[in-house]
Amino acid sequence: MNAPEQLPVEGDIESRMQAVLEAQRSDYLKEGVVSAETRIDRLNRAIDIQIKHQARLVEALNSDFSCRCREVTLLTDVGAGIAPMKHAKKHLRKWMKAQKRPTIFPLNLLGGRSRIEYQPLGVVGVIAPWNFPVNMVFSPLAGVLAAGNRAMIKPSEFTPATSEVLSEMIAEAYDTNEVAMFTGGPEVGQAFSGLAFDHMIFTGATSIARHIMAAASRNLVPVTLELGGKSPVVISRSADIAKSVGRVMVGKTLNAGQICLAPDYLLVPEEKLHEVIDAAQDAVAGMYPTILDNPEYTSVVNERHYQRLTGYLAEAEERGEKVIAINPANEDFGQQQGTHKIPPTLIPEPSDDLKMMEEELFGPLLPIRTYREFEETIEYINSKPRPLAAYYFGEDRQEEQAMLKRTTSGGVCINDVIMHVMQEDLPFGGVGPSGMGAYHGFKGFQTFSHAKSIYRQARVNVAKLGGMLPPYSKATESTIKMQLKN
Questions:
Q1: Which of 89, 376, 378, 418 has the highest local Cβ count within 10 Å?
Q2: Residues with catalytic function
Q3: Domain 232-426 annotated CATH 3.40.50.1370
């Protein structure tokens, strides 16, 4: 494969990326029909390079985060990047088949036929985040390649070691005209988002998404936005507290809570508050008896995000709010060397005007609000911007249905957190400020395809038969009468 030219920070980066975009589009048009065999080959190459370079990715991510263990990287980044590729390989021949659609009466009786064929869009731009920088390159790429497209990728500058490995992997597996990656800081991202792609997918913060949309709008580029928000967890009086809170804390401590789907705050019955706190402490102690020097507990990615999170806690403490750090070994987190670890921290009954209650946390902090009547949980969730996910723990079917039918979120997981994202046949996406559009599985194939409507007319002259041609006649009146009939 021809390796893409390395892009220095200096120089006209936009023109360099523009040249690759034009080359990819030209090569795509020259290729013509993109066969299932070609698509499967491109997916296989993505799988192969992830398996081949897994050790390098583990090392790079541990370096970028200053502490991120092998198991987390292989489970949530590499393994999670391979799974959608395998799923697409298995199903894409079926996805590619034309779909028959009903034809209106009486054209169906006369021989008219309708169908939809899925056609590649062309060149898709992928802007990936830092929290799962491998998964969030290859997961959307599964749909992009399965749909028969070419791709250009911009990884996050917050994980430079990982981005370097990814660039080498992409260059090893693909010709530049198939898939190309461009690393660099905000200036590269700004230029990248302004390119005239046929589609663009961005995963990241809502605030950045506004700039992405503005840049894309100049070329009328359609965008899929995978954002975040404050995903609520409702724990019912019917729930098993220990089991429910244990599952919540697994999701909250995984990658130190740096997950767009991480539970952002709890809503618990007021009489269960202390039981919930005890259960959270027990769950964390069972997983992480020590934290500071424990390689299995991930560090906050950098100083910027560490200061943001500790700033939330400082504000709460300054205002007299209760802050409970779950620190089983009573370690001194002020004496860290080279890491930015924050222990899982509970904030019971926080004031609603705290910054941590207004902004997505993206870290191991967990506010806990209480309620008396279940209806309060619905009202509170609906008073906030629509989140990427909502979680319900309990066995009360009426409550469960209230959560499902009366709140709006990108997705829902019942009696667990985050797990719905692993289901490849479920579309993944947000709603409102938590995102726009969706992908994964067949939905991803559809997102990165053009659903072309095709109608084949009957052999008879339908227009004449139906009186649609001047001079109008009794046949015309019959057609109109049929159309206007109640």
A1: 418
A2: 226, 260
A3: no
